[in-house]
Every structure is written in structure tokens, then in C-alpha cells.
Amino acid sequence: MRRLTSSTGALLSSLAAATCMSARVCSSSSSVGAAPKKPKRRLSPQLDASELLKSIPLEPEAKAELSTAELERKVDEWSKLTPEELDALYKQYEAEESAESRVLQEDSLYQMDVSLKTRASGAVRVFWTDVAVVPFDEQKYPGWFAVAVDGRKVKAFESQRVLALPNEELALACAREYAAQKGHINKLLMPITDLCSGAMQVAPQAIQPRIDYLMTFYQNDNCYFRAAAIAAKQDEMITPITNWFSRVFDVDVPRVLGIGHPGITPQSVEKVREALIALNMNPYQVVAMCVVAQFTSSIMLPLALFNRVVDLPTAFAINRAEEGHNIATAGMIEGYHDIREADSVVKICASATAWQLTHNISMAKCAELPRSFALEEMETPY
């Protein structure tokens, strides 16, 4: 049995800093059974709506494209198909929609909303005094680890299954989150445990639907677009990412100023999808990728972050650039912008940490542990 020590702090320094930031707006209350009050929202309007009209192209030659333009092109393409081709296309779209809907219905791992329930609905007091990393099951599953509080193995969030972790480093990261809890358990401040709990639900056959889901961000990736007022600043930050992505994935990356259609070709879509499949991501990496894609509306930014093309501060600066500009000019909604920013920082840091800690975990290793294994320990979940 290995005890949790302060040396794990170096492993998770960026995540710890982000968690401290989030704690100011969503930390647990120390009183018994008391949930924190919902912060009041205060709107600070500084927006002159007439200024928005100046940014809308009104001339006949304007480059902006209505949202119906793509639909009109699709209808024109479909009208040229034979009945057999049209039927095959319909079945293809129906299969894709069915696969994506099935994934979204079976679990909600992209937003990690397992931990978004209010504390009042089921707050659990922190009762333990000792946190340790222990073997999950040395005889049946050697090389797997669990987190134990006062000698009892913790369960995955929203599950009766013991939280099984594929290496000791990831187990230490989860143990650190348990050791940091005070008063009542605040799952918002346990993002790595949350992510690992979700990854336990992802079977190998569920990887492909998630890659298809990630590809929905590629069509209108946030890294394509620039706001006119801060375009030069965005170019400085984003160009290294787009150059890297274009070189590695062998595709053209458009640059759209203001409102416009990126014009991503089907060939590029297929090329990027095949490249994502070739990455052979394990469940932990797939969930981490989906989480960051949700928060950034991009697949280029998380891929660049995970491959260390950019660091975390740069990734945050890119992600908040346009909204930060809008807040500076139009005002911030307290209790919305600040809380959302803190949550995104914590979740993105956790995802980047989980990706790095599991990059050498193979699918064969993940397949060692069945998704529906029986449990010997059925004590009250915590």
C-alpha cells in the first residue's frame, strides 16, 4: 500500500492552480447539510447595439454567407442523385445520427456533467482521515490501482463499481483530489476522478461513435474564425496551431474573418477522421478529447494542447480571446462568465493532465478490465 505524499503536487501543479481558482466560486460549505447559496447575477451593460450593425455586411458583394446557403448547395447536390444514390445517402445519415444519439443517450461524458448535480441533492460529508493508493486486485487485475479512504476503496461517480485506475500515476492524481476535500465532497473540484469515472463506461466499440462526434467540431472549428477587432492578436496565437495541423494532417486550414463559411471539403473531413482513428486513443484520452472539444468548440486546439504545440496559458488565451474582448466592451455577467471560466479552466487542466498520464495506456490494457465486472465490495458509495 502506498500512502499519498506531497510529492504528487509536482505532477499536478497546473491543475492545482486551476482548482484553487474554481474553489472561490464553487467550494463546499463547511456547515452540515448546508448547500452554498446561488450567487446573484449582476449585469453591467455597456453595449451600444447600434455598433453591432456596422459589422454586418450589407452590400450585394458582401462575403458573408447566410446559414441557408449551405443547405441550398446540399439540396442542389441531392437533386442530381439517382433514387438509389439518394436512398444510400439517407441510410448513411440515418446510421450516423443513430450512432451519435446512442452515445449521447447512454452517457454524458463530453461535458462531464456527472459532477454537476447540486450539493443539496446528495451532499456527503468528508469523514475520512487517511487516503492511500492500493492495488485494485493483484490476482485478477495486476497493474490496476484504486483509491482507498480509511482502508475502503472508493467507487466511481454515479456508480456502484469500484473506481479502477490503469496506472499508479493516475491513482495518485485521484487520491490527491480526495485528500483535498473538506467539509462536504465537492465533485466540481474532483475533475480527474470525474473523468476516470466516465472513462470506465467507455467500451472499445464506443470509441468510433465518439470520433464521429468529435468530427462535428471540425466543420466549424473555432480556430478558423477571427474577430475583426482582435484579428491580429488571434493570428499571432492561432497560426502556430493551424500551421502544425495543416502539416501533420495534410489538409488546408481556412481563415475566416467575421462571418463566413469555412468550406471544408468532404476529402478533408475523411482524412482527419482517419487520422483520429489512427491515433488509437484509449478511453481516457477519448473522454479528455471530448471534454476539451466541448469547452473550446474545436478539435485543433485540444490536439495542439495534448501534443504540446501550445501550453495551457496559450490555449486559455485563445479560447477566451473573443469573449474576453466582448466582456471588455459590453460588460461581464457576474455569476455566469466568471463561474463558466473557472469551470472550463479546471476541466481543461484535468483533461490535459489525464491525457499525459495515460498516453502510454494501450487499448489492450483497458480491455483487461470488463466494463461490467462484478464487485466484491458494495458498501455505501462515496
From TrEMBL:
Pfam families: ATP12. It comes from the Eukaryota. Residues 1-22 form the signal peptide. InterPro entries: ATP12_ATP_synth-F1-assembly, ATP12_ATP_synth-F1-assembly_N, ATP12_ortho_dom_sf. It is found in: Mitochondrion. GO terms for cellular component: mitochondrion. The keyword Mitochondrion applies. One of its GO terms (biological process) is mitochondrial proton-transporting ATP synthase complex assembly. Keywords: Chaperone, Mitochondrion, Signal, Transit peptide. Belongs to the ATP12 family. This is ATP12 chaperone protein, putative.
